Structure formats: C-alpha cells, structure tokens
Amino acid sequence: MLPDLSHSLGRRLLAAGCLALALMAGAPALAQDPPTAPQQTLAPDEGSPVDSLLAYADRVGQFSAADLSTEILNLGEPGQSPLRQMQLAIALGQTHLPVDTARALGLVQRVAASPSPEATPLKPLARLLSARLFEQRRLEDLLDRQAQQLRDSQRRIDQLNERLEAMRAIERSLNRSSNRQPTR
Known about the structure:
- The structure is a single chain.
- The protein is mainly α.
- Helix content is 73%, strand content 0%.
- The protein has 6 helices and no strands.
- The protein has helices spanning 2-26, 49-60, 65-75, 82-93, 98-113, 123-180.
- α2 (49-60) packs parallel to α4 and α4 packs antiparallel against α5.
C-alpha cells in the first residue's frame, strides 16, 4: 500500500509542477499587477524547448515501469546538453525511487546553474522541477521513515502477541492442574 501512495504522490507533484509551469508560461502577465485594459495574449512559440519538454513530460508520465526503464537507458548519459539533462531528469523523476530522484535533482540543478545559452530558456523550468523534486525526495524520505516505524511497530506487536500467547498457555496449564487436584 505504501509504494502506491508514493507513486501517486510523485505523479501528482510532477503534474502540479508541469501545470504551474504551463500557467506561468501561458500567462506571464499574471505575475505582475493586473492590467487595466484588455491585453492580447501571445501564443507561446510552438517549437520552444520548454514546450517540447512539457510534451515529453506528458508522454513519459504515461509510460509503464518497463517502458520508463527503457527510456532512461535510451537517454543514457546526457553530457552537457541541457535539454537532454532535463529529459533524463523528467524520466528519472517518474520512477519514484529515492536514488533516481536524487539523480534527477542533480541534473535539474546543473541546468539551473548552467551558463550556456541553450540552458537559458530552460532555467525557470529547471528551478521549478528542482523545487518539486526536492519536495518529492523529502516525501520519499518521510515515507521510508514511516514504513520503518510501521515495521518496528508490527514487530513489537508480534512480540507482545507471543508473550500474551505464552501467558495464556501458562494460565491454561495452571487451570488444568487446579482442576486435577481434589478439593479438600
């Protein structure tokens, strides 16, 4: 039950991050004071790297675990390409494994800190994904701690049940021996 919770929580976090980015990219004027006159909204560039990454995130979000592993293997080592680093980070973020989340976080932080001109349009998305992946990692750690506490509690319950059963056995043996003794 707990791994399903982590999986759905991670998907929700990534979807929320992508939705927030789409809202920010589609309506940059909302971050400023509300306009007094109606403004014409500009359509985002269809071929922008951010749009392609959002489409990629949407596609990768539908992958099965086997397809996701294959995609990660196909991406390989992204080198210094910010777009490939972001693609790999998005794919790794979908696995919901702490080691992959940490690797994805490192990749998006490299893009956010990159001085290359190819990384410039990706930096806002990288910062957003960095925050989301950091939160996902925190939640995964919390889930691991809770799972460990649950295992410890279950072990303690099992030990107490064994002791209780041993006491019941002693009580039954005492009752049998008292029933055998003649009353005086």
